[in-house]
Amino acid sequence: MSTQRPTMKDVAARSGVALKTVSRVVNGEPGVTQATADRVLAAIAELGFRRNESARLLRTGQTATLAFIAGQVADPDQAALYRGLEEVAREQGFLLYSGSTDDDEDREERLALALCARRVDGLVIVPTAGDHGYLAAEIQAGVATVFALRPPEPAGLGDVVVADEPGGAKQAVAHLIAHGHRRIGYLGQPGGPDPQDTLAAYRSRRLALGYAEAMAAAGLPADERWLSLTPGTVPGAGVTAVFCGGKAHTAQALHALAAAGQGADAAHPGRVAVIGFGDFELAGLVPPGITVVSYDPARIGRTAGELLPRRLAGDRGPPRLAELPVTLIPRGSAEFPPPD
Amino acid sequence: MSTQRPTMKDVAARSGVALKTVSRVVNGEPGVTQATADRVLAAIAELGFRRNESARLLRTGQTATLAFIAGQVADPDQAALYRGLEEVAREQGFLLYSGSTDDDEDREERLALALCARRVDGLVIVPTAGDHGYLAAEIQAGVATVFALRPPEPAGLGDVVVADEPGGAKQAVAHLIAHGHRRIGYLGQPGGPDPQDTLAAYRSRRLALGYAEAMAAAGLPADERWLSLTPGTVPGAGVTAVFCGGKAHTAQALHALAAAGQGADAAHPGRVAVIGFGDFELAGLVPPGITVVSYDPARIGRTAGELLPRRLAGDRGPPRLAELPVTLIPRGSAEFPPPD
DNA sequence: CTGAAAGCGCTTACAG
DNA sequence: CTGAAAGCGCTTACAG
Question: Which of A158, A271, A287, B160 holds its CA 20 to 30 A away from the CA of B216?
Answer without folding.
Answer: B160
